[in-house]
TrEMBL record, chains A, B:
GO terms for biological process: ketone body biosynthetic process; L-leucine catabolic process. Residues 5-277 form the Pyruvate carboxyltransferase domain. This is Hydroxymethylglutaryl-CoA lyase. It comes from the Bacteria. It comes from Sphingomonas aurantiaca. Belongs to the HMG-CoA lyase family. It holds the Pfam family HMGL-like.
Amino acid sequence: MASQILISEVGPRDGLQNLDQVLPTAVKKAWIAAEAAAGVTEIEVGSFVPAKLLPQLADTAEIVAFARTIPGLTVAVLVPNAKGAAAAIAAGAHKITLPLSVSETHSLANLRRTHEQVLAEARAIADLIAALPVEQRPHFEGSLSTVFGCTLEGAIPDAQVMRLAEALMQAGCDEIGLADTTGYADPAGVRNMVRMVRDVAGAAAVTGIHLHNTRGLGLANVLAGLDAGLTTFDSSLGGLGGCPFAPGASGNIVTEDLVFMLEAMGLDTGIDIPKLLATRAILAEALPDEPLYGFVPDAGLPLGFAPAIARPQHELEMAV
Amino acid sequence: MASQILISEVGPRDGLQNLDQVLPTAVKKAWIAAEAAAGVTEIEVGSFVPAKLLPQLADTAEIVAFARTIPGLTVAVLVPNAKGAAAAIAAGAHKITLPLSVSETHSLANLRRTHEQVLAEARAIADLIAALPVEQRPHFEGSLSTVFGCTLEGAIPDAQVMRLAEALMQAGCDEIGLADTTGYADPAGVRNMVRMVRDVAGAAAVTGIHLHNTRGLGLANVLAGLDAGLTTFDSSLGGLGGCPFAPGASGNIVTEDLVFMLEAMGLDTGIDIPKLLATRAILAEALPDEPLYGFVPDAGLPLGFAPAIARPQHELEMAV
């Protein structure tokens, strides 16, 4: 198990895209700056989609430009196609993620694209990136969404998942992401999936996972991912985003709880938990009607809790 | 990892003892009967403590007598001392648990007893049991409470935990339980603790754990316990019990979510999830002001979900 873990905060993208309201650009900037100041080193700040589809994310180019001014921060964005990727590159994103739903039914329903059409976009994005000077090339992730099952199709055959992972690598992706879009994953499934996709894409190309907490298994699935060797985990401040069920049922896993678990295990996230918790106030003020989730924010830290960085090395080795 | 897992439902004891109201005896019976009918094979039905301290559990003897009439059900109770154990034996409990808080500060605050005084009670209970005919002897568990840390003392030294585990075995316990009374446990800590206590008590004597979900890590800690070889997990229907924080922050882990996770992993709990979910209606009707927690009850089962028992054996082997 790695001792350093990367938390990729997806709230400004995944958290906001489902809201009825549009968070003001200034608030987004304050949120991103505060999380970065708490030690978060990768933030998915938006998505390059038509503003008429997602007005919540219409300011993504401005947000990317702002986020790039924060030293040490990896600025990630989601794109649905090569047109979005071109905009992401123009704005200066460090990392571009293209989702490919392994359920073709879901892909057609959500993106109105077949698998082959999405793969063609992936190839076009890879071409755009290859045309850039090496030092300007963003990292390109192809993310397998609904990979643990689809609300329309149910379980997706392993062979189909592996074929699509291979196709994304052949299209020119640097990395394959795994996304439990539907909250269907369980720990055994996570371990299997990581092993399986690494078999076709290589271990170095499969390091991250996007988990939801729809059925309460989010952190157990993180633990399974850690055991399988993953080192990057997506999460959302306050569990904001994709929240179809209440109470307590957030879509995204809660960054605060995730960081607590990892640090309690002696894994170094680089994130200051009290500072991270304080960041919630920005959302609470700007989105007073949105529930903010999280157990640790309510329960507080255990008495005498010490983050990984403050603990003696021999204790950490024992703990892991 | 074992393929069969025992869920020990603790709601009728741990769930009810913190309520302001007293659940009628008839409702308790209906609840216990319904859970047993859903496939739950061990239920902690009450506690033999003075009725003036816990009026919620004053009918424990009657509940034990009722629960014993349910075929195949292990009827467990908590006792604070030898007097309670004598009552439990008279009522016919199959399993008796004596908690010993590894934090002496907590032990004094909650039970007004030192470690040595609790160990003396353990020896007296073992003597009571030894005086019974073999076929009438209940299983005797000594449960190490606050074992992952105490809200008054913080972390408890490993040496103290090991000394007390050994002392409980020497006092005559059949089994050592681990209880995260405070919700301080993390997955690395669970793995360490199981290894450590097994070192002194033997693997066969350390099979179960009582976890809380106070900081959202309940199911991740279950996974860590599974990996460490544990096979018995306490939980509470609807997460009832010990619920100091809201929203979503239950004290006990939620039986429904726990069973879902295990069955999704291909582990056989013997529990029918739809029947288990239907059991919630009994609590919802009888305790309309108490929040019932759980993600799976809100989100439902994944499309095409099959419990462990219904899946082909080769798939289960792959999954685990």
